[in-house]
Write a structure and sequence with these properties.
The protein has 14 helices and 15 strands. With about 350 residues, the chain is of the alpha/beta class. The strands form four sheets. It has a seven-stranded mixed beta sheet, with helices on both faces. Strands 11-10-12 form a three-stranded antiparallel beta sheet. The protein has a three-stranded antiparallel beta sheet with strand order 13-15-14, sandwiched between helices.
Length: about 350
């Protein structure tokens, strides 16, 4: 028997359950508890054991969640878990696509946690969202999003990925950018309330708002990452088409990656409220620690990976914390990033970060 939160799950091996995903589920339960009302309609689109929907019902106060599971064997196991936990739900042995194209229901919260990528599902899920709906979307095809298989990323996400030290944030922005483009086709704009790149997955929590203007304003926040392989300089360009440019730092030609999301990766108010809800719960300390870093993370696009920079500069390695201290003393804003332990975010720019590294070495 696997126990997580208030859920008890029979580990029969007939439905996939990943204990390492507990932090993600803890965050999701707190998010739904924070923002849902008693009337909110919740869909768990890829349920497996049903653990997410069960926790939403027992911990977030959701009444009668809708649960989908396409695999008939996993579906039977999930029904047993619903009975075990005394949770009333509308459980269906069907696919996301079939359900979305036959139901008249509309949902306020949709949880998508598939095995692999999100691209087979987002289009159909947009058909069953209410205005103001929130999507909680997980991608585990991290190798694709992070550029290890760049052709697959271009084919599935319609974006050119970067495969270097920036790949965790870039991959997150590629995934969110895909959601934004599909949402726009349905007349939805979008704001990101929380995004997490952690372990083997990326997860985004976004709020949809219906309207042509909202959709256009969302797509206007798409753009491209410029990266110089020679000196690690990076620039962000907002717009529909990239321009060929020369690196301002070393004059080399900069490569372009995208299109991808260049808007905010969090809503500070939502993150602050999540931290309050999680901090006193000993059982959710991993999620609480994650949120505490995200809370203080600068919104400046793309972090600076210190080991990569020191290698390019031909100097010995240096602690990111010492570089951060040097930047703070010079008056720059600086923070950790949850996406990469050896990186920092700062408004100092590449030259400022390089100067701080030199200062630490002096």
């Amino acid at each position: 028997m696997y126990i997580e939160g208030k859920a008890r799950i029979r580990e029969s091996g007939k439905a996939f359950l990943n204990p390492a995903g507990k932090a993600s589920r803890d965050l999701s339960v707190a998010y739904v508890e924070l923002l849902a009302t008693k009337k909110s309609k919740v869909l768990d689109a890829t349920a497996a054991t049903g653990i997410r929907a069960i926790r939403y019902a027992k911990e977030s106060g959701i009444n009668n969640p809708t649960i989908l599971e396409i695999n008939s064997i996993a579906y039977k196991a999930m029904r047993q878990n619903l009975t075990l936990n005394k949770v009333k739900a509308d459980a269906q042995n069907t696919s996301v696509q079939e359900f979305a194209n036959t139901t008249e229901q509309r949902f306020d919260f949709i949880d998508l946690d598939p095995f692999g990528g999100i691209t087979p599902y987002i289009f159909d899920l947009m058909k069953i969202t209410n205005n103001g709906a929130r999507l909680m979307v997980t991608a585990t095809d991290v190798a694709v999003l992070c550029g290890a298989d760049s052709k697959a990323c271009m084919r599935l996400y319609d974006s050119k990925p970067i495969h270097n030290e920036l790949c965790h944030e870039s991959g997150m922005r590629v995934m969110i950018g895909y959601i934004a483009r599909v949402a726009g086709q349905f007349g939805f704009g979008m704001d990101v309330e929380l995004s997490v790149s952690y372990m083997h997955y990326m997860r985004a929590f976004v709020r949809l708002a219906h309207g042509a203007t909202a959709a256009y304003n969302t797509l206007a926040r798409m753009g491209y990452l410029r990266y110089c392989d020679k000196c690690c300089n990076r620039e962000v360009e907002i717009g529909f088409l990239p321009k060929a440019i020369e690196c301002k730092s070393c004059k080399a030609r900069m490569a372009s990656y995208g299109r991808m999301w260049m808007g905010e990766l969090k809503d500070q108010k939502v993150v602050d409220q999540l931290q309050v809800r999680l901090k006193d719960d000993e059982c959710k300390k991993e999620a609480a620690k994650l949120v505490s870093v995200i809370k203080d993370e600068l919104e400046a696009p793309f972090y600076y990976h210190i080991p990569t920079l020191t290698k390019k500069m031909g100097t010995s390695s240096v602690s990111p914390y010492r570089v951060a201290d040097a930047l703070k003393k010079k008056g720059f804003k600086v923070s950790q990033t949850h996406m990469e332990r050896s990186a920092i975010k700062s408004d100092a720019g590449l030259i400022g970060v390089r100067d701080a590294i030199k200062l630490v070495h002096s």
